[in-house]
């Protein structure tokens, strides 16, 4: 969608399910840590908070609504930021497990991966010298033989169910084919504009981090949807985070940062919090004369139903 006001939405993905605690001592794994880091990120300028849950005992990703309830309502009580509940979970979860809390919360936004795919960080395991918890090594190495599942029927059923809740989506597109899958669901009437497309670069199994790929994804989305009908956001995984999201903003897009996507702030320097990444990209954007979207701006831009209509 064209952005005449030059306002950029910052999404912060607070913890995710791909990184394990041994990759960074700063990765939030307890409900209190997730809450604290999410609130700090919102205060720093994140208009949208993308949330996963973890077992507080060992940091393992969990779909448990009980665990989500230990931090999501508290976040909602202390910030107006848009709360976005993942439906991605992890490759170890069933579809019903991944949807469990979103079905209860009926949030303003959920993430939705636009296809089944290989999704792996397994090469990282060879670079790890020690592991904090005994589940982590098998979890990371096991990604080599795991598939993230979202079939066309899965996606259709999610869109149909959540349409009744008034929930809108962060459509996660890891490759050009995912844009065409999104176009299919638009063509059959299950998705209406404005669309929020999260283009993801640098995940093994998806499109690479080359800058030319960002131009290709942007041009393809323009051709399929018309720029007036969608808002693009950019996610650069790992060390490509800041450079790609900055390029994306210059191309008229929005940005996503957070410890789900990268545990680093700069080369060799770990981010001590999600807020550090938010503050960094905010500074870069403001120095480029962009305005940072507030939660109210994000709601208006994305056509969200508002906080009063959720069950967090």
UniProtKB/TrEMBL annotation:
Its cofactor is Zn(2+). It holds the Pfam family BKACE. GO terms for molecular function: 3-keto-5-aminohexanoate cleavage activity; metal ion binding. InterPro entries: Aldolase_TIM, BKACE. Keywords: Metal-binding, Transferase, Zinc. It comes from the Bacteria. This is 3-keto-5-aminohexanoate cleavage protein.
